[in-house]
């Protein structure tokens, strides 16, 4: 892309993708300086994506400084809730304070519009911070028990796929697809691709055909 258009390197989405693929210390510092110097020019979701990358690379102070500015700029309930979820990740990762992280997350679980993100944040903390795969899957299973929706089944399948539990992922994706049969408008082919991957990885080639 850079060979085709040299100016693309200045685009925020390009910077974000490049940082995700190659999060060197130098790139982290440069992108942090870029965000802080041009903060008002960026959308909520782009800023949140950079916060995610900084958290993933344990640059918690940088992530927190951006979140503090975001609190002052963005005022909708959903935006505030998403900021709180990132704060929960910082509490867990930087401070090893699971109780405080769960307190922040549980405040948001009863909000229908944000519940999915709250569940994903909680499960991600258990997997990536505390390396508890059993609890990670348990949270996603419990989410399906509360609401056995197509989307929640797909999220559970994604969880199994993330842990390379391909047989389990296949079964859950199939359940999700069957739930979609009477609602063609919501059908998306991405889940078919994930099902095919899990079937092939579990050597169920006949089923994938």
Task: Tell me what the structure shows.
The chain is an all-alpha fold and 209 residues long. Helix content is 72%, strand content 0%. The chain has twelve helices and no strands. It has helices spanning 12-21, 25-37, 44-56, 60-73, 77-95, 98-106, 115-129, 133-146, 150-162, 166-179, 190-201, 205-208.
Distance from N terminus to C terminus (CA atoms, Å) equals 36 Å
Overall number of strands: 0
Kindly state the mean pLDDT as a whole number? 89
β content, as a range?
A: under 5%
Feature tags:
single chain, 209 residues, mainly alpha
Could you outline the blueprint of secondary structure elements for this entry?
Layout (H helix, E strand, L loop, with lengths): L11 H10 L3 H13 L6 H13 L3 H14 L3 H19 L2 H9 L8 H15 L3 H14 L3 H13 L3 H14 L10 H12 L3 H4 L1
Helix pairs in contact: 1-3, 3-4, 3-5, 4-5, 5-6, 5-7, 6-7, 7-8, 8-9, 9-10, 10-11
Summarize the structure.
The chain is mainly α and 209 residues long. The chain is built from 12 helices and no strands.
